[in-house]
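Morning - 6-diazenyl-5-OXO-L-norleucine inputs below, output right after.
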Amino acid sequence: MLKKLTILLAVASIAASNITLINAQERLSTPLFEYNAINHPVIGRKGMVASHNALSSEITAEIMRKGGNAIDAGAALGFALAVTLPRAGNIGGGGFMLVHVAKLNKTIAVDFREFAPAAAHKDMFFDEEGNVSNAEYRFTHKSSAVPGSVAGLAHIVEKYGTMTLAEVLEPAIRLARDGIIVTYDLAADLDRSERLRNNPAALKKFYKPDGSNYEVGELFKQPDLAWTLSEIAEHGVDAFYKGSVAKKIVADMEAHNGLITMADLAAYKVIEREPVRGTYRGYEIAASPAPSSGGTHVIQMLNILENFPLAEMGPGSSSALHITAEAMKLAYADRSKYLGDPDFIDIPTDALVDKGYAKSLAASISMDKATPSEEIAPGNLAIYESDETTHYSVMDSEGNMVGNTYTLMFSFGSGVVIEGTGILMNNNIGNFTLRPDIPDAFGLMGSEDNMIHPYRRPVSSMSPIIVSKDGKPFFMTGTPGGSKIISANMQMVLNVLEYGMNIADASVTPRIHHQWYPAELQVESGISPDTVSLLRQKGHTVVFSPGMGSLQSIMWQDGLFYGYSDPRRPGAKAVGVE
Ligand code: DON
């Protein structure tokens, strides 16, 4: 094994020294683990986990060491993060998973997105003058859609796992009951989330009895959450959707003008969907379909970019960044018009990911000049008819994979904790379009098809991504970041497949983002001032912006696992299984 690694490293370092002399196709055929790279992934032989919380990654790796598969581990991690990373890990929210089930050789897109309660309607946040109160829309009991996380995590373990639901809940129950040591990340989060103090149950849960903050190194216990998780372990998902927990959720909703009823909770359903699929330079890509826009537009952007020799231009060059930004604008414009809940409208996914359509969009890109956003409109598809989320990736030696992006929407969601349960509720109602002329909470435009409607799921940007070669898994990734999820995931794929970077370099490299509106090209610090001035000369309105996602990635190559947690947020960790 060591010998194999040494040979790999030797080959890689020779390849690395010639890196500017080989073309994209040749790069892809060289090992991506380079001894001379600037950033290095973690290596594992029997599996890998990458998540936003080091303790949770360690616990998940331990489950796999003891014989659990990646699906058991992925479900356990989802519950554990609800305890260790309360700003985003959750049981009161929802999301999208890609689960690769090795024995079926099948990748399944699991939609556990929240839906709007039956009593929700499109005018519910407007006053008589047509104004919207953001506080009511974002930070009240009405901000919550019906949560899907418990159903989603239980679904994968009960259908494709080897452990029981109670077994995968055990680490989360233990952490909530016995407490976790407060990390820098958690202390800083709670310190800046003043609005948690506005809700009495959240104040009780997240602060000391005298109202002061938990300090780094102190023990933080969540007894109510331990009760909720234990009820689910004992009585199954029905505890949450029909039983003791459901009753507490509904009582709290009724006491505070919330809309979620027992009937809404009982109606919640996880939906298995076919992933949206595409290719980039011969590699296969699977991602989450609608109601997430994440997969469709990553593939659409890659299809556009495939028409340009980006590797020859060089990663980070103004020409490559210019073209990448132009592709982003075109895709985000289409997102505003065509995406919605597929259970309510027809979505032209095949047309959006059509290579011919992408070619026509590519032809509209000028090499020298940025097209102003107001000159871009959602494309005509007729002729082609053919601050918080978290992502984690888990993979085992049988080839099972779980990529999960789930969210409460904002950091700590609506800030509402359901009395007696420790459940922090989502504010994903904010991903609906209030009116087509009003951007959503992330500045994204949407159509009437994404307006609030009973049982409708709001359009999301969340999508885990799995890249394979000849049907064999190659790497997986995913990220939080609201509207920037799509552009960050796409740049990760591009950095690996086009520029031949290992997953560590591919994650760290500064990113850019353009979502059509606002009409500005956002860049991270690290893009050189010279490059910025060249981009400005091409007509881009460049602004510096932090927070372009946080990728949690795993690559599988030549029998080894390579994991990497983006350093953009503190406390994340990739852990290999030996
Ligand atoms: O579904 C969506 O697209 C958003 N609710 C995601 C929110 C998010 O990523 C916030 N995080 N950083």
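Note: Residues 2-45+274-388+461-577 form a domain with the Glutamine Phosphoribosylpyrophosphate, subunit 1, domain 1 fold (CATH 3.60.20.40).

O.
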